[in-house]
Amino acid sequence: MHTDFASRERSRRYDWLRCEQLEQVCFEPGRENSNAGDVAKFWNRLSHERDLWQQGLTHVAGVDEAGCGPLAGPVVAAAVIFPKGWMEAGLPSKFRGLNDSKQLDEAEREKFFERLTTDPEIRSAVVTVDVETIDRINIRQAAWHGMNLALDRLQPRAEHVLVDGLRIKWLPYRQTALVGGDAKSYTIAAASVLAKVTRDRLMRDLDKQFPGYGFAEHKGYSTPQHFAAIEKLGPCAIHRKSFSPMKPKEPELFGSADPTDFRG
Known about the structure:
By secondary structure, the chain is α/β, with parallel strands linked by helices. The protein folds into two domains: 1-44, no CATH class; 45-200, Ribonuclease H-like superfamily/Ribonuclease H (Nucleotidyltransferase, domain 5, 2-Layer Sandwich). It has helices at 2-11, 17-27, 34-43, 47-54, 86-89, 106-118, 131-137, 139-153, 186-209, 215-218, 224-233, and strands at residues 60-66, 75-81, 123-129, 160-164, 175-178. The chain is globular and about 55 Å long. 38% of the residues are buried. The model is unreliable at 1-43 and 253-264 (pLDDT under 50).
């Protein structure tokens, strides 16, 4: 068991032995010893959820987004609630290797997406915020708006939310902000996978509607291929007009006139 689990964890790109040990504690609670259990309480990726469950809460959600950085396409937010019963049982073995979506390859993300969305004990919601909204209220507000909408769609309603990044002051939920939370919390990691896979699929569909830009490959991010396509074809309907190079340049204070020419 130990050898098999360690090999799995190494394949998931964990770089240090303690992380492997903590993951083992999380998946196999019966293997805890006093020292490992104390450390795991603070470091394993279900510890934040467990702490809240132990306070008497039942519906603890993780929320995350995908697509803040691209030049084109929507931003997608997702929220996930794991069952409280996992406080004792630990994360099911089928979720071994679940991680921040950026640390998983496409096949791994698709695998976990399927398992997360078909597990009857998991509650989840995904929201897409379009380019028009991004340009109107800015990308940060659009991402937060999407997170709020995703949380609002969860049934039952979340009692506490684990947020990836900084605290969202206006979010109408009790929350814990975790910088780098998608690598510290399994519910946030799950939300990051749902958001990323959903957005990638959307961008592949949009590639068919707007051929020539390479959206299926780069998903709207700032790649040389993408910049070259914009230079050749110009921006299309799903490019974010509030992002450079689509954003209009601010006019110069003196226009194009020679500032040394003071002729009256």
